[in-house]
UniProtKB/TrEMBL annotation:
Its main location: membrane. Pfam families: NMT1_2. The lineage of its organism: Bacteria, Pseudomonadati, Pseudomonadota, Alphaproteobacteria, Sphingomonadales. This is Nitrate ABC transporter substrate-binding protein. It is found in: Endomembrane system. Residues 1-28 form the signal peptide.
């Protein structure tokens, strides 16, 4: 079996030894959220060789192509190699999936990165969930209705005879203003209040000068002072909702943007890697007490998923065609293989006749895609504060504590380093890091992000809550 970056058998080299040391350091620092116990974490991270305590498992997912690591781990036998008998069960929507993990009906799930973070800080629901692995980078896009696309297309700059990318939301502003003059709301869809899609859509709109609205304390609509009103629609229902005219556009993962192209009902205008290059997307999430009760099972799950991630990115995507066939099955994504392949095989179609190379649209293993960086969690927390889901200011240390309570690189490193030791993945696929990516650029608005300075980052945005501001039904106010 061809593996990405693999060349014979690998053992521990300097990088792997450093990574193992970092795992110990991460263990020592993971108690910051007030909900972690360092002793139990040491037990969890050390249990990498034992037989799974709970071999029969049920994992949940939503019908999106980025659930691929779970499907591949099942279909290519990686779960079985680790002594696990896993049932994969599609869920109706993200709320049902979240409740299933919290209530124990599901042992774990393909989950929005914001969900375990929100549960930990008590937004929407309160539960101790952890994210020991990131499933992928990128994978989303924003699609507009044909009517809206026709309205903005004439004003868009071109390059080499094609529409120049990335497309700024500033070109949408005249359309939104026209709706306002007519007394009509301009509605767009996203998949869940704490989804990457919500924050990416908001980021894109705000970067173009459009306010996507604020959340008051206890409010789940998030439409206060909004120029564009966002609402929740489950991913598979996005194309039908757009076609019905309920919304004028949406942000969703694949294959539901390409489905709009195939149906001829909408045009994707920007991919999320153009909003934030190589952004983290979904996570694999489990309850904290599950990891503590079943440490060997947790380690086995992570090893199997990491193997699947590597398989997906192996040999410059040589396995993607097979992955497309697997995902197209009705028990997984259940969309036409042609639609799934449109983004999974290194291409992305914007409008018919405009298909472009998009090798990095889905990244599962390369670029340390699986490592759960604290700074990724902190970015989500900053966006929750930016739009009012976190109603009050907090010091930088609070953001770091919440990130460490949820994101668990110690567990990831324990599993990944065992795979390095066994020669399954290359040592240089495990990052040398303190858990932070460092300063990141690649955002559509040119603003840089440093996870160690969340409040300084929040102060940079022209649109978004500033220090001391709060939101009520009447709008934003300052102290």
């Amino acid at each position: 079996m061809a593996m990405s970056g693999r060349n014979g058998k690998f053992g521990f080299n300097r990088r792997a030894v450093v990574a193992a040391m970092l795992a110990s350091a991460a263990l020592a620092g993971c108690g910051g959220g007030g909900s972690s116990d360092a002793g139990s974490e040491n037990v969890v991270a050390a249990s990498v060789d034992g037989q799974p305590e709970k071999p029969n498992l049920k994992l949940g997912f939503i019908k999106l192509t980025d659930m691929a690591p779970l499907a591949i781990a099942k279909e290519k036998g990686f779960f079985a190699e680790e002594g696990l008998n896993v049932e994969l069960e599609p869920q109706a929507n993200w709320k049902v999936l979240l409740d299933g993990v919290i209530g124990g009906q599901l042992d774990g799930a393909h989950m929005l990165a914001g969900q375990p973070i929100a549960a930990t800080i008590g937004y929407g629901t309160k539960a101790e969930l952890i994210a020991p692995l990131s499933l992928d980078l990128n994978g989303n896009a924003i699609t507009l209705s044909n009517k809206t696309w026709a309205a903005i297309k004439p004003s868009l700059p071109t390059e080499g005879g094609k529409i120049a990318h990335p497309i700024s939301a500033k070109y949408l502003k005249p359309v939104v203003d026209d709706y306002a003059k007519q007394g009509k709301p301009f509605n767009m869809g996203m998949v869940f209040p704490v989804s990457t899609h919500n924050y990416e859509l908001r980021y894109w709109l705000a970067a173009g000068g459009l306010n996507p609205g604020y959340y008051a304390d206890g409010d789940v609509a998030g439409t206060i002072d909004a120029d564009v009103k966002l609402s929740v629609t489950p991913p598979p229902q996005m194309p039908a909702t757009l076609e019905a005219g309920t919304i004028e556009g949406y942000c969703v993962g694949e294959p539901w943007n390409q489905a709009a192209v195939q149906k001829g009902i909408g045009v994707p205008v920007i991919t999320d890697d153009e909003i934030w290059n190589d952004n983290p997307e979904k996570v694999f999430s489990i309850r904290k007490d599950f990891a503590e009760k079943y440490p060997a099972t947790t380690a086995a799950l992570l090893r199997a998923i990491i193997k699947a991630q590597q398989w997906l990115d192996a040999d410059n995507g040589a396995n993607r065609a097979e992955a497309v066939e697997i995902l197209s099955r009705p028990n997984y994504v259940g969309a036409d293989a042609e639609v799934i392949a449109a983004s999974m095989t290194g291409k992305f179609t914007f409008e018919k006749g405009d298909t472009r190379d998009a090798k990095g649209f889905n990244i599962f293993f390369d670029k340390y895609a699986g490592y759960p960086y604290y700074s990724d969690a902190i970015w989500y927390l900053t966006q929750m504060r930016r739009w009012g889901q976190i109603p009050a200011d907090h010091p930088d240390s609070w953001y770091m504590e919440q990130a460490k309570a949820v994101y668990r690189p110690d567990l990831y490193l324990a599993a990944a380093n065992k795979l390095v030791e066994d020669g399954v993945i290359p040592a240089d696929s495990v990052p040398e890091t303190d858990g932070y990516r460092g300063e990141q650029s690649g955002f559509i608005d040119g603003i840089t992000f440093d996870g160690s300075q969340p409040n300084a980052y929040l102060a940079k945005f022209p649109i978004g809550l500033k220090e001391g501001q709060t939101v009520s039904a009447s709008g934003v106010s300052s102290k």
